[in-house]
Amino acid sequence: MANADCIVIQGSNMAECHPVGYQWVTEAKARGARIIHVDPRFTRTSAVADKHVPIRAGSDIVLLGALINHVLSHDLWFEEYVRAYTNAATIVNEDYRDAEDLDGLFSGFDPETGQYDMSTWAYAENDGDRADARPGDDGKVGGPAGDPEHAGADASVAEAAGQQLGSGGAPLEHARMQRDDTLQDPRTVFQILKRHFARYTPEMVQEVCGISPEDFAYLARSVTENSGRERTTCFAYAVGWTQHSLGAQFIRTASILQLLLGNMGRPGGGIMALRGHASIQGSTDIPTLFNLLPGYLPMPVAGTHDTFADYLAAIASKKQKGYWAEADAYTTSLLKAWWGDAATADNDWAYDYLPRLTGAHGTFQTLTKMLEDEVDGYFLLGQNPAVGSSNGRMQRMAMSHLKWLVVRDLNLIESATWWKDGPEIASGELRTEDIETEVFFLPAATHVEKSGTFTQTQRLLQWRHQAVAPPGECQSELQFFFELGRRIRERLAGSDDERDRPLLDLTWDYPVDEHGEPDPEAVLAEINGRHLSGPGAGKPLSSYTEMRADGSTSGGCWIYTGVYADGVNRAAARRPAQEQGAAALEWGWAWPANRRLLYNRASADPEGRPWSERKKHVWWDEEQEQWVGDDVPDFPLHLAPGTRPDPDAGGAAALAGDDPFIMQADGKGWLYAPKGVVDGPLPTHYEPQESPIDNALYTQQRNPSRVLFARPDNLSAPSAGEPGVDVYPYVFTTYRLTEHHTAGGMSRWLPYLSELQPEMFCEVSPELAAECGLEPYGWATIVSPRAAIEARVLVTDRMTPLVVRGRTVHQIGLPYHWGVGDDAVVSGDSANDLLGLTLEPNVQIQDSKVGSCHIRPGRRPQGAALLELVADYQVRAGATVATGNTRIDPPGAAGTAAAGTDPHTDPSTDPSTEPLREN
């Protein structure tokens, strides 16, 4: 980022939420880079940027789409880069119909399930056969049956899949694709892209985003003048982009723009995902996600991946380009790492020990199962859903249905004490003496009280050494789970029950110290992997290319292979910057293979020469006949630029000398996604789940593939054009502060931080304060269809009213760090109580950055009166599960097909909605 010539920070308040990373922005600015902050609020990031551009929350695709249109219509795209390194020339199936043809939908949509059959999105093939066809595929795109690529499948299973195609993208067999290198065929990706984004204009940006033509022109000029051979632009985003019902498509839009400008795989370019914690990247690499295995291998689906052969055929093809074709080696090595000698060729490397997805098992689907008494117990580690997750009331009510709850944290957070001092106790909805949940609080060690790695947003593993021993009975996660596993295995010893074999056969032989703490370096070595047989038996693997599918290697996470090469903990490397090269290869270790810039083959032109001396990174050395440079080349080391592979080759052997995107199935950057993105091959603007503004581009109001929870305790506000929309006329957005950490579990118990931000507050513009009678530093009550909270009023010019579609849109800013309880130094109402549950369909993240509300002066009511206030607003809005929680919004209708098979979908069958239907 420090090498960027222009940095656009959009969907993030980087200076406040990522202050350590923001040093590289300030360094770039000191070198002459232009910094632009696009955000609903003026923040500390805005204060040091060259320009702040206010935007209506949730409208980012319109702005980014207009930048794409600007680049294409003014011939500002980096032509040589785009022609060589993207799928611009690939021809798409003649049956494909765009959202421009179908008023906001793509071909293949099933309104009953909210899913797409992607077969019409596929590339056209040379021989008339579908490139991804497999036996029994019956015309659908290859992949797990019952995932969103298969229309008509059970919705609960479909919602479980999200994006399960791993880091290699969707399988394709490259040799059969049709191309038009002139880019003139109307069915080329390039021409489809031009038509799709043609209506995304500066005028549309003003109408939908509230951004003036002058500000748009400044932004367009900045990113285009700072892109090309000599210069690069970087985009940085955080949860302001991801936590939307279109989150994945926000990032896809930026990816398209960056590919057109030639900013991918080049120093100072790319898209920086600013992760929210020190090791959130690590917790997705070695995942806490229900639908992924380590290294982004997909979790098997019951009834589809019943055999190892089924699984491998679905996730990767040996005929596709790139290293993802070797997913069988990565998977076999993982199974050997977990089950050792019990994993043999005869039992498919213990593949049947892996659990199978039978539906969606994410945090919010589990939440509804808890409310339906289908979950007995729950572990909470590093999260505080009682105040830190969407729809806090649902979270707390769900925990009251459990038989037992284990909370591991540093302090007695609200998720450990809701049963005695939560809001539902105050309102009378719950009584402590009636709650049967047994809560176990187990104190956890802090990051300075344990050793291990952080993996941050750059994919950099950095070893932290234990500074002090944890006090009392506090334990690290490693020790806790090691001990838990040991005790479970002791209880099961001697069992001949087949279902116990996976636990008993686990390799659970980690060495321990005198305190019983497992050696974290031994775990890192297991993750790295080793040779199990042959001349190098016992030796650590040096690269994931050494992994084999024959059981001769093990490795707990293939992308981390090399971090313990030669038995050296390379995550602990700490050579000072002034003693090494520009890429700082000896500070920590970056996956994969310690390369600091992914797809860096794209930093050189098709002939292997740097695009410019100023932006050189890796290049082809004719004398050495290999790729060299400042970084570890992200390309086969001796694959010459002009190489053309055998058309029948697969894997790395199928890569051409100008295929820099080595994990993609065709070696190219995807301007258009022929499969794998479940809500459309191109980003398309839809309004958020709750919006007082109608969609200016299409009649289709909301993302038709969004995941819904149609329940009386999760009502949505009416949208534009629906009766009752004016009951919740304002937009709120949530954010965090430097002084507090997420839901406050690490900060609201500290007096030093609590005194800096002692109370929950709301940011409102002077215009909104005057309109609603709000007094500076007085109290306000904010009401949504789910809850009402109170907050101190901060009247500030940082919140800019925007004129959108002829009306003034007021946005309210709400930090989300507070919670009601007696144990913290400071407490207050939780902003997340206001949020509803709607999920993005690809990755299942919640839509929590924009919602509809009303704001009024004064404190909220107490007790039962609070529930009456919320219900009164619901009645006046006519809010039911049938109004706001419908899947698709046909022209002229509020919606016809509801989400899933929830019995609450039809309000006529649920007596609890009767009072809401009177109005």
From TrEMBL:
A molecular function (GO) term: molybdopterin cofactor binding
Gene Ontology terms: cellular component: cell envelope
Name the Pfam families on file: Molybdopterin (PF00384), Molydop_binding (PF01568)
**Subcellular locations according to the entry:** Cell envelope
Note the superkingdom of the native organism: Bacteria
What InterPro entries does this protein map onto?
Answer: Asp_de-COase-like_dom_sf (IPR009010), Formate_DH_Act (IPR048158), MoPterin_dinucl-bd_dom (IPR006657), Mopterin_OxRdtase (IPR006656)
Basic and acidic residues bias: start-end ranges: 127-140
Q: Where is the Molybdopterin dinucleotide-binding domain?
A: 731-835
Residue ranges, annotated region (Disordered): 127-154, 883-919
Q: Which family does it belong to?
A: Belongs to the prokaryotic molybdopterin-containing oxidoreductase family.
Which cofactor is recorded for it?
[4Fe-4S] cluster
Q: What is this protein called?
A: Molybdopterin-dependent oxidoreductase
Q: Where is the composition biased (Low complexity)?
A: 889-902
**SUPFAM superfamilies documented for this protein:** ADC-like (SSF50692), Formate dehydrogenase/DMSO reductase, domains 1-3 (SSF53706)
Residue ranges annotated for the Molybdopterin oxidoreductase domain, each copy included: 2-403, 442-486
Instruction: Kindly state a single biological-process term from the GO annotations of this entry.
Output: anaerobic respiration
Q: Which UniProt keywords apply?
A: 4Fe-4S, Iron, Iron-sulfur, Metal-binding, Oxidoreductase
